[in-house]
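Recall the central idea of this unit: under ordinary conditions, the amino acid sequence of a chain determines the structure it adopts. In this exercise we apply that idea directly, starting from the sequence alone.
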Amino acid sequence: MATIPRTAKSGPSLQHGQLGLFGVIMPGVAQVAPAFNLFFTTGLMIGLAGASAPLIFLISMVGMVATASSLAQFSSVYPSAGSFITYITRAIGTKVGVAVGVITILGYMARSSPTSPAPSAPRWASRSA
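Accordingly, the structure predicted from this sequence is:
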């Protein structure tokens, strides 16, 4: 594995007692949210995918491991409380970081709107007898 040199300057850090109870609980809830999604949609996934459901989990695990690895490497170079937007901004530039941030927020808003279509299975995956 290639070693990334530490070239980033360390920014301001949190002081003792700076975060309140809400500031500590909400990141934890945000980290647990994907697990709840998995818990509540596994039955639907198995119903649609059938016996290939474990393969779907393995394929998605490859993408998650790649994402986690890149975020871990970036966090060692750019220590920050930010997310991927921080790494994009510092690695590529402010304009690209702002563009990605705006596109991400618009995507979240479009996906969470009441009129957005629910995910559905393709026709070839339906089990009509």
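The radius of gyration is 19 Å.
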